[in-house]
Amino acid sequence: MSRRDENPEEVEKVAAGEGFLDQTLRPASWDEYVGQEAIKNNLHILLSAAKERGNPPEHILFYGPPGLGKTTLAHLIAREVGANLRTTSGPAIERVGDLAALLSNLGPNDILFIDEIHRLGRAIEEVLYPAMESGVLNIILGKGPSARTLELPLPPFTLIAATTRVADLSAPLRSRFSGGVYRLEFYSEDDIAKIVERSAKILDVKVDKSGVREIAKRSRATPRTANYLLKRARDYAQLKRTGLTSEAVDAALGMLEVDELGLTPIDRKMLEVLIERFKGGPAGVNAIAAALGEEQATVAEVHEPFLLQLGLIERTPKGRVATRLAYEHLGKETPLRLL
Ligand SMILES: Nc1ncnc2c1ncn2[C@@H]1O[C@H](COP(=O)(O)OP(=O)(O)OP(=O)(O)O)[C@@H](O)[C@H]1O
Ligand SMILES: [Mg+2]
Questions:
Q1: Rounded to the nearest 5°, which phi and psi values hold at 283?
Q2: Contact 60, 177 (CB under 8 A)
Q3: pLDDT value at 332 more than 60
């Protein structure tokens, strides 16, 4: 197992193949999609107005840490406007021809969903711009002075894109999402509790209120993680022949080394490296990842956002610094400058 796979979200996504758990538990209606109220309100206006005009909605970008519900929103939008959803991802579009084939096969009002759009190559982005802006596919025939551009009109379509790394998107690409660029937020404990209750019903798991609370508390404010922890706790309770109480959840998650804040061993090690090796910081994400022996992308997309969210680290112009809370959480002596 690689280091990257030790992350619960990654493990769940990988072990579950095509995201089996994601699919069984994925909300099928807006009512089931808990939280993200600001985004839901904005989308409601965008989609209603487009429907009234008889147009496909304008292009939309969702960004935020993994497991917060970006892909789910794309599915809900397709359902809402009654459109076909065609799904692909940045890494899957290797050549200009791959994108050209995708675009030229779109039917009228189809939705094209490109996951991990930050991984599109520059040459491919160049083909995407005119498609998004003017609904044409530019194909260059030949090379050098005799090259010609063929302009193929495309049917009206909507591009929905998702990324965990919005900073890696070029400004020209970002500015072409005329339907809006939406940042998904971490969830409140109450909202995660609602999600856990719904998932428990679907999975036919009996879990008491205290068990739900305990899972919600330790889920990194992330629906996918909450669903993952629910399943792990269910397995534990089943083998121990006990109900899913807060004690059972505590024991199960203790075995997974998920602590009371929801931190995994890698999160804690990241804090420790920052405190010990970098004397509390500032340190750049690259340096921290190298010291941890973790992929820089995993640190930046998964670990850092949650530690920032909890206020265990802070971003400064010179890099990340450990806060007083981080010292306290690890039981380390707080330096005078933070008292
Ligand atoms: N608002 C929500 N309400 C209920 N369940 C949710 C919500 N958002 C996400 N989930 C659950 O979490 C799972 C993961 O969500 P989703 O696949 O949409 O995340 P994502 O943001 O696309 O993640 P990634 O960046 O890894 O692709 C869903 O299948 C669903 O079960
Ligand atoms: Mg997704």
A1: -140, 145
A2: yes
A3: yes
Over the range 143-160, which residues count as b (16 or more CB within 10 Å of their CB) and which as e? eeeeeeeeeeebeebbbb
> Ligand 2: distance of its center to the CA of 115 in Å?
6
pLDDT in tens, 31-70: 999 999 999 999 999 999 999 999 999 999 999 999 999 9
Ligand 1 neighbours by CB, cut-off 6 Å: 22, 25-27, 33-36, 66-72, 162, 164, 195, 223-224, 227
Q: Which residue has the tokens 């959840």?
A: 249
Calculate how far, in angstroms, residue 228's C-alpha sits from the geometric centre of ligand 2.
15
Counting ligands in written order, which one lies closest to the CA of residue 164? 1
* Catalytic one of 110, 115, 191, 267: 115
CATH number of 265-338: 1.10.10.10
Active-site residue, 217 included = no
State pLDDT tens for residues 158-168. 999 999 999 99
Question: What CATH number belongs to 189-255?
Answer: 1.10.8.60
pLDDT-derived band at 19 (thresholds 50, 70, 90) equals: low
Q: Which residue ranges make up each domain of the chain?
A: 36-183, 189-255, 265-338
Indicate the pTM of the whole model: 0.90
Residue from 72, 158, 163, 164 carrying the catalytic annotation? 164
